[in-house]
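# step 3/5: fold
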Amino acid sequence: EQKALEGQMAQSQKMQAVGQLAGGIAHDFNNVLTAIIMASDLLLTNHRPSDPSFPDIMNIKQNANRAASLVRQLLAFSRKQTLRPEVLN
């Protein structure tokens, strides 16, 4: 029984370390995504929907938002928060 408890404690410590690592990486990655989303928003204000590059800019923004959603999930895991799932298009 002592060995089982020690194993559970070691597993718990590993999970805590993984959570901290995931949280740190997710936080830094979120900063990069914020810059991408802001830049794509700025580009969209300077391009009309009829411009050839408009769909590409929209694609960049949509994918950055999807990645930001994944980052929120990682942060929730690292903080042991409850997720609020939502449908993404």
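# step 4/5: annotate
The chain has one domain: 2-79.
# step 5/5: archive (pending)
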